[in-house]
Amino acid sequence: MTTRVLISFFCDDRPGVIEQLSALINQHGGNWLDSQLSRLGGRFAGVLQAQLPEDQQEALGDALSRLEADGIICSLTDAGAAPQESLATQRLTLLGPDRPGIVRELTRALRMAGFNIRSMETSVETAPMSGEPLFRAEACIELHSDSRLDELEWQLDAMADSMTLEIDLIPD
């Protein structure tokens, strides 16, 4: 019998980290499935899903914890049940002057309208002409039977006006 696990990690950014992790998964009869990996600041972080024999989960967890001696901090957890299918998705893009609270306001609007974030990437960039910091976000959001698109559009319009942001919703 096999199981799916999630492995999260972070460490100093250096060559060979993914090779170490994939070798351990392979040594325990596992298969690397999905992953999201990124350098943030001077650190490298990621989360991945792997499938492996159930009787290897504890041994893999022990092996991952020994990577701390190499500066790789890992956590292993059961992947849980597959999520229920959403009715549809929308792509949300946001761009505007960087300031504290943008992510908090955005996620509050999504929650209040009954939406779930499937994925989100954010960055702060330098504006080409002014050199001012610009906040950029891209998210894939899930619409469910109880989601209220009109409520979300109203919330996002109010947020865009008050924070001088450009926010677009595009059906996937």
Automatic annotation (TrEMBL):
Alphabetically ordered keywords of this record: Cytoplasm, Repressor, Transcription
UniProt xrefs under Pfam families: ACT (PF01842), ACT_6 (PF13740)
Organism superkingdom: Bacteria
Gene Ontology, cellular component aspect: cytoplasm
UniProt-annotated location(s): Cytoplasm
InterPro entries listed in its UniProt record: ACT-like_dom_sf, ACT_dom, GcvR, UPF0237/GcvR_regulator
The name this protein goes by in its record: Glycine cleavage system transcriptional repressor
Species annotation: Congregibacter litoralis KT71
Biological classification of the source: Bacteria, Pseudomonadati, Pseudomonadota, Gammaproteobacteria, Cellvibrionales
